[in-house]
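Supplementary Methods, section 5.1.

A reviewer requested that the exact input to the structure prediction be made available. We therefore reproduce it here, unchanged from the version used in the analyses.
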Amino acid sequence: MIEEYRFGKMVIDGKTYEKDLMVAGGKVIPEWWRKKGHNLQVEDIKEVIEREQPEIVVVGKGQFGMMSISDEVRQYLHDQDIELYDKKTGKAVQIYNRYYQRKKHVLGAFHLTC
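The structure derived from this sequence is encoded token-by-token as follows.
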């Protein structure tokens, strides 16, 4: 569960992270980077999706929502019957935590800054 989010900082299980990250199956995948920076592409998440097989993906697009999600990502997740939530990171954390507490198989992908 994510304990705290502030611009550039996320605390999970007492540990502080200051770089973008993903959370899947209760495990943190630190220092997540996208090939096109502020534009999420299928190749940025495909490996983790295939490994974790989530039913829900929550994308935190940054404190101000500056990260975009390609139409290909949306179609890829739709084709896999995976529900997508994409919000500013503060709201995305709330959604992620809600599904995590309900024991849903949720993957969180979080941009921590802009």
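The longest strand covers residues 56-61. These observations are discussed further in the main text.
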